[in-house]
């Protein structure tokens, strides 16, 4: 399911996909369980029980071939741009916006027709 809002450069696609996150600028670098709520070519909305702060640099570890449009990508590097507390969330208390360091390459399956017929996450 795609999410469009005026002013956004890229369409977001709903995706309830488990993942792991490692902070690259904190002493404790063990993977933290999280979930991708939606994803675009330039970033993702992440939900977690662990608080990440704006400017935190993190590694997003993805299950192999789990997200349509990101097949073959096992990890992404990015920077937290914002965070919020959400005590009513299904999984995590915290949500944050992650901006990827590199744009995900455009492929045919990032076309609207692909997401109209296929679920974002397996």
TrEMBL record:
<protein>
    <recommendedName>
        <fullName>PilZ domain-containing protein</fullName>
    </recommendedName>
</protein>
<dbReference type="GO" id="GO:0035438">
    <property type="term" value="F:cyclic-di-GMP binding"/>
</dbReference>
<dbReference type="InterPro" id="IPR009875">
    <property type="entry name" value="PilZ_domain"/>
</dbReference>
<dbReference type="Pfam" id="PF07238">
    <property type="entry name" value="PilZ"/>
</dbReference>
<feature type="domain" description="PilZ">
    <location>
        <begin position="8"/>
        <end position="103"/>
    </location>
</feature>
